[in-house]
């Protein structure tokens, strides 16, 4: 099967780009993510394919470094732009156009930061989506998608499923099965990353509950998905990796709860993965200072 994907490098890069949403350069992880997204919404599934393809295609046409393209570094922010727009808005012609253009622009912004050797993670997705959501809310009358208004029915397993729901919400999927599939998708690529992510999701939910956040939103995984990403970044097999995971996750959770409680980013659609990016940047800075003083 791997030989099949090698004969179709563009498709391979798209799948790996989707996998890179959770920092996994793995086509099978990407394929499982894609299945989980389609299970939640065919619009989100098509959108993630289009935007990831647009980002990858733009990188190829602009002659970016081939090794970076093959590592799918130009796919994951593009993928998130697509799925975010399809999740937030009804998919009119304008939204489909913006999904493609936003995916291509994400690759350009990603390249700028790669050239500057700045680890920006999903920051290009955040910038583009904030701008587009603000503009669409203020200058168009496109209604929100039905997914935003759909009611999530509570179950007796909510406390147990909260940890995997944190994985689902990374890619805007609130379905129970999607969250489980996303966890397994990371696990087949990196068991250590998946288990650290699971622990981070639990910690995010627990601390947010202590902070008095709405239990329904905690169960949905909305207070865990940023922590999941921060944990995956610093995950590893060394004992010190666990310490850095804990530091990153605690900082990320604090930023997440602070921004949500104060409605700081409601005007641009929400926090998205900004707490993850900010928490990871701060932890990397602490790490750099610590290593210098050793």
UniProtKB/TrEMBL annotation:
Domain of life where this protein originates: Bacteria
Protein name: Urea transporter
